[in-house]
């Protein structure tokens, strides 16, 4: 299994992110840059991270009209990122436009994945925005739509992985946050799953933040995650 751990760089300054990156080996992990760090540090930090040799998942969850999203994922590809994402609820035409925009990218195109239903939304929240389906039904529906629109995968919670793996094609990529070993603090995550269990349930990549970024030795914590997964 090739570098399944994606470390979430959830920091509010480029200095903190770079200081962590200096302690990590790009041969042992990938990294995720989300909205907070990107809004603070911008494309410059993304380029620096790519230049350090890291595969970057740019987690900006684009959701807009098809033309804007297509141009945005193209701009992300030009930064050299490895993975980029959009909201599946932006619709098939938006996802297809994003996918087509990436076809025109020179060199290796980034993986394009979708967010289905945010795990912060319960049934009542969906009802308030006019969606009658249960969160699980909506997740499946949007994951199928993402697959049909030519996307490479979806972000899904540990609780959804097994079902989605059974419903979607085997090469469709599942990216799963909410990962904790028994000895890790759960922080604000409600439902966590262990790294081995998550991979056995069908995840391809595991997003891990605080158990590594806040560890006394992030490199040792990463080693422990990788060792647990070695041989799977
Ligand atoms: O520190 P921790 O391991 O909880 O970080 C998990 C990362 O995954 C954070 O960047 C968080 O925003 C992201 N994420 C999540 N749950 C989702 C989607 C993304 O925890 N459903």
Strand fraction: 15-25%
* Beta strands, count: 8
Identify low-pLDDT runs: none
Strands ordered across the widest β-sheet: 1-2-3-4-5-6-7-8
- What is the total number of structural domains? 1
CATH class: Alpha Beta
Largest sheet: 8 strands, parallel, barrel
Give a structural overview.
It is built from ten helices and eight strands. By secondary structure, it is α/β, with parallel strands linked by helices. The chain has one domain (5-229): Aldolase class I (TIM Barrel). The chain has an eight-stranded parallel barrel, surrounded by six helices. α4 links the parallel β4 (83-87) and β5. α1 crosses α2. The model has no long low-confidence stretch (mean pLDDT 96). Cytidine-5'-monophosphate binds at residues 8, 10, 34, 119, 155, 157, 177-178, 187, 189, 207-210.
List keywords for this structure.
232 residues; alpha/beta; TIM Barrel; 8-stranded parallel barrel; 8 strands; 44% helix; binds cytidine-5'-monophosphate
Topology diagram in text:
Layout (H helix, E strand, L loop, with lengths): L4 E4 L5 H8 L8 E4 L1 H17 L4 E7 L3 H13 L4 E5 L4 H12 L7 E5 L7 H6 L6 H14 L4 E3 L2 H10 L5 E4 L18 H6 L4 E4 L1 H4 L4 H12 L3
Parallel strand pairs: 1-2, 1-8, 2-3, 3-4, 4-5, 5-6, 6-7, 7-8
Helix pairs in contact: 1-2, 3-4, 6-7
The structure holds cytidine-5'-monophosphate.
């Amino acid at each position: 299994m090739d570098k399944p751990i994606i470390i979430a760089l959830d920091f509010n300054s480029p200095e903190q992110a770079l200081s962590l990156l200096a302690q990590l080996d790009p041969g042992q992990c990938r990294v995720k840059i989300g909205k907070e760090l990107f809004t603070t540090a911008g494309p410059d930090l993304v380029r620096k991270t790519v230049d350090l040799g890291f595969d970057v998942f740019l987690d900006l969850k684009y959701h807009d009209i098809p033309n804007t999203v297509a141009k945005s994922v193209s701009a992300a590809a030009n930064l050299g990122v490895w993975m980029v994402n959009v909201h599946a609820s932006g619709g098939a035409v938006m996802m297809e436009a994003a996918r087509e925009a990436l076809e025109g990218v020179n060199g290796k195109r980034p993986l394009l994945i979708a967010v289905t239903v945010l795990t912060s939304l319960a049934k009542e929240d969906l009802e308030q925005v006019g969606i009658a389906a249960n969160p699980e039904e909506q997740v499946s529906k949007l994951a199928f739509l993402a697959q049909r629109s030519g996307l490479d995968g979806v972000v899904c919670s540990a609780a959804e992985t097994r079902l989605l793996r059974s419903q979607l094609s085997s090469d469709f990529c599942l990216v799963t946050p909410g990962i904790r070993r028994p000895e890790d603090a759960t922080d604000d995550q409600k439902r966590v799953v262990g790294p081995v269990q998550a991979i056995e349930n069908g995840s391809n990549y595991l997003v891990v933040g605080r158990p590594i970024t806040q560890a006394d030795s992030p490199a040792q914590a990463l080693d422990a995650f990788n060792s647990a997964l070695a041989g799977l």
